[in-house]
Amino acid sequence: MARIQPRLSIGLPVYNGQNHLAKTLESLLSQSFGDFELIISDNNSNDGTEAICRRMASRDRRIRYIRLTRNIGAAANFNLVFQRAKAPYFKWTPHDDLYEPTCFERCMETLEASPPDVVLCYPRTLLIDEDDQPLGPYDDLTDLREESPSQRLLHLLSIPGCWCHAVMGVIRRDVLRKTNLIGPFAGSDNVLLVELALQGKFSEVPEKLFQRRVHRHSSLHANPTPEQLATWFDPRNESRAVTHRLTRLRHKIQAIGRADLPPVEKLRCYAVLARVARIRQWTLSVLGREILRAFKKNTWDRYTVETAAHHNGQLLFYRLWALLSGMRRRDMQRIRASWMGLCTDQKNSQLLLDLAAESLKGRPEPRAQQILHAWLTCASPPHREAAARALGLPPQPVRVTALHKRRNAKASSAMKTVVSGTDYPA
Question: Which fold has domain 8-149+160-180+204-223?
């Protein structure tokens, strides 16, 4: 007999969650609304998570248990449970939070009774500790009822310190499918809310039916730095430079560009994003310095040809973008010295030329190409023709003078200092 499709799919990604997983599953299975499927994706846990999941799955046919053979990161695991969902409504749930018995029922009632432009429904939040003791209410402030997408975007981005609990609400699956889901970077839940807010309204259930557990093993507490949190989202980020502000800003700009909105409304959304970035002092110089710090901390201290081939293609373009964005003269000189120092080595030079050509391919930024060409012509003469060929630029012969030789020698010495782990040259 064929199984009837449920009305709600619940996705539960988990990794080493034995401490609170059993309580969460009991909370889910005791809901007054029972027409749901529960998809558990175990991200190759090495504690008692697998035993708990298999025991609960044997008790309740609504549970589908998936165990991965390797850790694919939190972002991919969150997206996997959505891809396996079948119901018209979808909800993510963490492995350590609790719900009041009427939570799903109230959310489904509200969302099904709302017009189609309401895309998400979530309950109010109560914070609890490791022992299930209440810590106090948390006001999410994400009840987005504004009519225009730009007004909803301004409301959402103006919330101070948003914990993005609305992502754990009940969402229309066809709307969620149009987004990029959870991205492999810190703050991607906020970017997802931006994508959803551009498509429709959010509705808040006034009762405190969601209990968010705050404990020392949660993702935010166990990964306090942006680099650690980025690695938690995607293990491949461990070998990459992390620019968390710039990454979030870039994905929000792209989300507005992808949204199915009239051109005038898109311009309003871009204006809102620029206004919020200015209020939070995300100036071009701040973003440029973030790029420099990321390079210094994550790239130059262990720079090899192999790691460069893995992640420097986009980052090279970021450096060009930062140079165009009005950075301080001293920072510009540091980047230029680092580039010239790398170009003195033939193997690194050819690799970076290939990466530069790939990162600039199809991009209409003639000023960026001009600057890159200027950098390359300042490198040692044997690499000049190879640079022009790799980037598709016309060769511009530069007379090699004693000044060029002194500059190249100084840049090479500066780069050796950077690679050895000391600070940038002044």
Answer: Spore Coat Polysaccharide Biosynthesis Protein SpsA; Chain A (3.90.550)
